[in-house]
Amino acid sequence: MAHWEIKIPTVTADLRPGVQVFTYSAERFPEKDQAQSQARRDVASEDAIRHRRGADARPEAIKVIWHETYER
């Protein structure tokens, strides 16, 4: 199944870099802009913040990758 992989860089309070990854089905989000907009909303959610242990997200440096199928 085709999907969008969206990577948003993060940085911790002690300046350690990281990345938070979101994956969206192309069936639900057929356009890149739709998936990117959803990731920008999701990165600000309580669950996403808790998952990255409070690290700051840098959505201005978002990276969007198209995948034709899920890798196993």
Number-wise, the strands total: 4
> What is the 3D shape?
elongated
Per DSSP, the total helix count is: 2
Largest sheet properties: 4 strands, antiparallel
What amount of the residues lies in strands? 25-35%
**Are there runs of 5+ residues with pLDDT below 50, and where?**
none
Give the proportion of residues in helices. 10-25%
Topology as a string of helices (H) and strands (E): EEHHEE
Radius of gyration: 13 Å
- How far from one another are the termini? 12 Å
Q: Taking all residues together, what is the mean pLDDT? A: 95
What count of domains describes the coordinates? 1
Specify the structural class. Answer: alpha+beta
Short account of what is shown:
With 72 residues, the protein is of the alpha+beta class. Helix content is 24%, strand content 35%.
Would you kindly provide a written description of the structure presented here, covering whatever features stand out?
This protein has 72 residues and is an alpha+beta fold. The chain has one domain (3-67). Helices cover 24% and strands 35% of the residues. It has 2 helices and 4 strands. The chain has helices at residues 32-42, 46-51; strands spanning 3-11, 17-25, 56-57, 63-67. Strands 1, 2, 3 and 4 form a 4-stranded antiparallel sheet that branches. Strand 1 and strand 2 form a beta hairpin. The longest helix has 11 residues, at 32-42. It starts with a strand and ends in a 5-residue tail after the last strand. The model has no long low-confidence stretch (mean pLDDT 95).
